[in-house]
């Protein structure tokens, strides 16, 4: 297990702008506020969702596009450093008019209808993502700079 | 984007009472403890769930009733001010005996079997909900009092 | 309602080890760091999931095994005391290659592919689980030691 003990940072409640790409919008917010490490959570609705399923064989996320309107029933994620930039990692559960759910790794192209997030920034040495040979993912690692 | 920087408030772990209406119970708790702004999360089980899907055309939540027993696989939300009162906004993912999921905006009529929530209150000027013409929703806004 | 007001404790971002049993791994971490009370959240992917649906009649969790690979679309939970030990209670939503979701109470046998968790420990008198006659569950109670 790789563990990072962090110190409490700032606390934000944010309302996301209609029409924005959810990952872009949050990444810009983090860059602007110099948030290098955070936990974040949100609810709302999306006009369109692109969710990824990680395929271990190809080492790629297979995108699943779900046309909206959709409720954003759950969105949980974190901010850490990747290539010396604030990187946002979010997983989401969307639900449709019948309540049916779609879940996965949130990808670019997911368009906000409405969104309310709580961002809890953390300070201290932020986790940094490095390529991980075992999974093919970019994971938090310590002292294994590639 | 509308952002609110908040200060850390109080921290509660709460066990919800069997048979209570989840939104009522949490709203009463917030009123009693004078919580005007918070992030909250919970897990548990429900005897019955009413989840809403927002229909942008009618500007109304279409209710979906799911009879229990159901696991409350996820519940994420926030507290902010609406009409000068503490207002609780929760989204939930429920799951049935086969693990099948139902998600959406939690509505009145959702009955607790068991529930364990973590409430993190925030202080400072709380977000306030105002009618939003673009979406038809009641959203956090600044200086646009209706 | 049973409420516990807690004080802020330590903050951890942790990366779970591939191949580990998610409940074991987190329970060991809590024991090692002497975490008796916490809220925690995670995302990632599992090689296999065992999720439970609580059957009120038998008073047992019916296990549902879902073979992976699966995205861990949401994982929310808490740490409290049970039988004088740190006890981890997690609910999860998993999603498959088509984005289809499976949710419930996370059970032993759920195997990590990758996992990123935020653990917020809380201090003060931790909630303690005691058998609850009304639900058949082990719930937070005060002064009703069995």
Short description:
The structure is a homotrimer of 146-residue chains. Chain A has 146 residues and is mostly beta strands.
* Helix percentage of chain A: under 10%
Output the helix-strand order of chain A. Answer: EHEEEEEEE
Distance between the termini of chain A: 19 Å
Oligomer: homotrimer
Largest interface: A-B, 39 and 44 residues
Q: Helix- and strand-based class of chain A? A: mainly beta
CATH topology value of chain A: 60s Ribosomal Protein L30, Chain: A
The first-level CATH class name of chain A: Alpha Beta
Overall geometry of chain A: globular
Proportion of strand residues of chain A: over 45%
The CATH superfamily of chain A is known as Hypothetical protein, similar to alpha- acetolactate decarboxylase, domain 2
Structure overview:
Three copies of one chain form a homotrimer. Chain A is mainly β and about 150 residues long. Chain A has one domain: 2-Layer Sandwich (60s Ribosomal Protein L30, Chain: A). Helix content of chain A is about 10%, strand content about 65%. Chain A has one helix and eight strands, in the order E-H-E-E-E-E-E-E-E. In chain A, strands 1, 2, 3, 4, 5 and 6 form a six-stranded antiparallel beta sheet that branches. A two-stranded antiparallel ribbon of chain A has the order 7-8. In chain A, a hairpin with a 5-residue loop joins strand 4 and strand 5. In chain A, about 50% of the residues are buried. The mean pLDDT of chain A is about 95. Chains in contact: A-B, A-C, B-C. The interface of A and C includes residues 39, 54, 64 and 76 of A.
């Amino acid at each position: 297990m790789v563990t990072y003990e962090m110190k409490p940072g700032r606390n934000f409640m944010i309302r996301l702008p209609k029409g924005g790409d959810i990952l872009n919008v949050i990444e810009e917010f983090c860059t602007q506020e110099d948030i290098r490490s955070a936990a974040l959570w949100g609810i709302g609705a999306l006009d369109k969702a692109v969710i990824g399923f990680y395929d271990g064989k190809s080492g790629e996320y297979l995108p699943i596009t779900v046309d909206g309107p959709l409720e954003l029933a759950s969105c949980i994620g974190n901010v850490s450093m990747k290539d010396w930039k604030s990187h946002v990692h979010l997983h989401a559960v969307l639900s449709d008019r019948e309540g049916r759910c779609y879940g996965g790794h949130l990808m670019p192209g997911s368009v906000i209808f409405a969104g309310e997030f709580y961002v809890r920034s953390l300070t201290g040495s932020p986790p940094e993502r490095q390529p991980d040979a075992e999974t093919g993912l970019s994971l938090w690692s310590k002292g294994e700079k590639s």
